[in-house]
Design a protein that fits this description.
Strand order of the largest sheet: 6-10-9-8-7
Number of strands: 27
Order of helices and strands: EEEEEEEEEEEEEEEEEEEEEEEEEEEHHH
Largest sheet: 5 strands, mixed
Oligomer: single chain
Shape: elongated
Radius of gyration: 42 Å
Strand content: 25-35%
Number of helices: 3
Distance between the termini: 144 Å
Structural class: alpha+beta
């Protein structure tokens, strides 16, 4: 898709990835870089290639489809320790995170050749292109890479990662962007196992979702949820399509839908593009690509850009046996919110998400309304919100009816599938019996064929020896003829001799 059409995104089919034909040169291929969108421009920083960390910042204009390199400089008031030594404006980093805050891009964490004890926060001023280290205070976390960072209002939430000594973590830290102060969040219940290269999202400004990632030996496909108000971890069951374990994937949220791309397990890349409805906790495979496609890569980045009022997904880079530097775009099909009334306030959104999650976890497939009502009232009291409980309870009643209807349909479909499975099982048993019978007949035929082959072999040997037998017969016939001739001669001689003797005696 070329850059000659500034409205190129309107030509895209829904839910299908397309590689963009860019003008000019592309940035070097890489993975485990960081990406962020500002207005209609995609910013790419750092990453890794062939074991070497990168420090450049590249900009992709999503209107002109042209790449450019961002030239950085240090702030004018930064003192140089030693002018004779070259200063690294932005450290070469991999496995870091980047996001927009005000008129700056903030780069957090990541691995670099210079191992430090504490986590650093770098900034890039988008107007002056000055670069430097942002000063932070409080309980500064240990330096790490492969962590997840999620912005909730003015709070930046960080989970997990791997430090410079390859120690894995599952801690939660929060950076207050107003005061640039770090703090540790203490949560109850069972947290996710320590991991890195996972992805995270926030739903309804309250629930932190963690999906996938890996340890040094295990790849995960689990979902964990941290309630940021009660500070309790839970592990709800994902409904819908089953997904394979993965790490190094990327995610972005649009409304209540969480889009997830790429990742892998060090053997193969994950070809599916997933979408998780965060209210219903239902996972859907949106589309799939080939196993060697650049989108089936680890260390890929995923962003979204608003073009003409429409959100477009943008994926870049990654590694799947080959480093990639292509930009792919997708036009996600609009998905109507199933909760138009409930999602009028954060508290209502939280209530709906909790009710739906509880419904999904119910083994019986049915919750009594009194339980949902009690849950909803508790959430309302805990939040101190002023929304109208009566209208929301009515909305929940309607949703309960809808879910029960859907559950009844699923049960009917399951019953139908069970009948078909039973029928198929019976057919399989009959076919197995017939197969055994045919196999017995086949074995008997094989035995008979073996005997016939043995007889044929004997006959062939006899046929091969028949010329010599015929020669022997002819020789015997000649010998017999000669013997008979000799006998006749001998008989004649004997007669003659015998006649003379009797003749002489008779005289």
């Amino acid at each position: 898709m070329g850059a000659e059409n500034s409205h190129w995104h309107l030509e895209l089919n829904y839910d299908q990835w397309v590689a963009l034909s860019v003008s000019g040169s592309r940035p070097s291929a890489r993975y485990k870089h960081a990406a962020a969108v500002v207005d209609t421009k995609l910013y790419i920083s750092g990453g890794s290639r062939n074991g070497r960390y990168l420090s450049d910042v590249q900009v992709f204009d999503l209107e002109t489809l042209a790449w450019s390199s961002l030239k950085l400089s240090t702030e004018p008031n930064v003192d140089k320790i030693n002018d004779s030594l070259p200063r690294e404006i932005l450290p070469a980093t991999s496995g870091h995170s980047m996001f927009k805050w005000g008129n700056k891009l903030l780069l957090v964490g990541g691995h670099s050749k210079n191992i430090s004890a504490n986590l650093s926060v770098w900034f890039i001023d988008l107007e002056s292109h000055h670069c430097g280290v942002a000063e932070t205070t409080g309980k500064v976390p240990v330096a790490r890479g492969g962590q997840s960072l999620t912005l909730v209002g003015s709070k930046l939430i960080m989970f997990g990662g791997e430090d410079g000594h390859r120690q894995l973590m599952n801690d939660v830290h929060i950076l207050d962007m107003e005061t640039m102060t770090w703090d540790v969040l203490a949560a109850t219940q069972t947290p996710p196992a320590p991991r890195f290269d996972h992805t995270a999202a926030v739903h309804a400004e309250r629930y932190l979702l963690i999906f996938g990632g890996c340890s040094h030996s295990i790849f995960f496909n689990d979902l964990h949820v941290l309630d940021l108000e009660t500070m309790e971890w839970s592990q709800p069951q994902i409904q819908g399509d089953l997904v394979t374990p993965r790490a190094g994937h990327a995610g972005i949220t649009i409304d209540e839908n969480w889009y997830i791309v790429g990742g892998g397990d060090n053997r193969s890349g994950a070809p599916e593009t997933l979408v998780l409805n965060m209210s219903k906790l239902v996972m859907t495979v949106l589309t799939s690509v080939g196993g060697r496609d650049p989108l089936a890569s680890e260390g890929v980045s995923l962003s979204s850009v608003l073009l003409d009022g429409e959100e477009i997904l943008v994926a870049f880079g990654g590694y799947n046996g080959k480093y990639n530097n292509e930009a792919y775009v997708m036009r996600p099909k609009p998905r109507d919110s199933p909760h138009p009334k409930i999602f009028q306030s954060p508290a209502a959104a939280a209530a709906a998400a909790s009710v739906t999650a509880a419904y999904a976890l119910s083994k019986s497939g049915k919750l009594e309304f009194s339980e949902m009502e009690d849950l909803n009232i508790k959430l309302a009291q805990g939040n101190g919100s002023q929304w109208d409980l009566a209208s929301d309870i009515t909305a929940i009643r309607e949703e309960k009816k809808m879910l029960e209807s859907a559950l009844a349909k699923v049960r009917a479909d399951n019953s139908s599938f069970k009948g078909k499975i039973d029928e198929t099982t019976g057919t399989h048993a009959d076919l197995s019996k017939e197969l055994h019978s045919v196999q017995g007949q086949l074995n008997a035929e094989r035995s008979r064929c073996a005997k016939l082959e043995a007889q044929i072999s004997e006959l062939q040997k006899m046929l091969e020896s028949s010329p010599s037998i015929e020669e022997e017969v002819q020789l015997l016939r000649k010998q017999k003829s000669a013997w008979e001739h000799d006998m006749e001669l001998a008989s004649a001689v004997q007669r003659q001799s015998s006649g003379g003797v009797w003749k002489w005696m008779s005289r």
